[in-house]
Amino acid sequence: MRTTLAAAGSSMSDAAAAPCGVPCRRASPATGLDAVRYRGFPDDLEFRAMDLDGTVWPVDSACGDLVVAVETIEHLENPWAFFRQLASITRPGGAVIVTTPNQLSVLSLLTLGTKRRFAAFQDAHYPAHRTALLPSDLERAARTAGLAAQPIAFSQSGRVPLTGWHYPAAMSSSFPRAFSDNLLIVARKLA
After folding, report:
1. Calpha distance 181→18 (Å, rounded)
2. Does 2 reside within a domain?
3. Separation of alpha carbons 68 and 20, rounded Å
């Protein structure tokens, strides 16, 4: 499972269920949704193979208290349809969490200015990374799907352009949008 913030006794779905190496406290029950079952996906969790770009998912409506998509939406052709699907499988009062590369970081904007593509969307990343999204795109997609979005949060971890170094924590925490490689949106499904 990628990450989970669900309270004990609640249910969780993880769209794109590849392991990310982040220690997590699992919700029970939890279901992974992805095109393939990746090595490292816990054997004791349910997995459903599916096309996340599809319009019909093999999941009941309103079945998850917490629906998480970590570094997934940028791989899809239609992020707005994806948000609608995430909202459809979230129970009223439940939460949707989506993370994606931060297109407004210093690194990404410098890359856009010099190479005419965002940092995470170079030729080497295609066709895996298909859709670059700005924070405003995520907020609009969430709102269009009937979700109430909280303010965008940033990873506060980012690479210094032209190096393998990361910005000092004091810098990235003071200017998170500029010095974070990734962002996160949390949105609630209204009751």
Report:
1. 19
2. no
3. 13
Whether the CB-CB separation of 59 and 31 falls below 8 Å is answered with yes
| Burial class of residue 100 (count of CB atoms within 10 Å of its CB; 0-12, 13-18, 19+) | buried
Q: Enumerate the β-bridge partners of residue 185.
A: 98
DSSP structural state of residue 73: G
Q: Quick check: 9 and 66 in contact, CB under 8 A?
A: no
Distances (CA, A) of 175 to 69, 138, 155, 158, 183: 25, 20, 11, 11, 13
**Mind listing the pLDDT tens digit of every residue in the chain (191 residues)?**
233 333 333 455 556 554 443 334 455 678 899 988 989 988 888 899 999 999 889 889 999 999 999 999 999 999 999 999 999 999 999 999 999 999 999 999 999 999 999 999 999 999 999 999 999 999 999 999 999 999 999 999 999 999 999 999 999 999 999 999 999 999 999 98
Structure tokens at 123: 């030729």
Q: pTM score, two decimals?
A: 0.86
Domain range for residue 20?
12-101+130-155+182-189
Residue 127 CB burial class (10 angstroms; 0-12, 13-18, ≥19): exposed
- CATH of residue 141's domain is 3.40.50.150
Is residue 142 a part of any domain in this protein?
Answer: yes
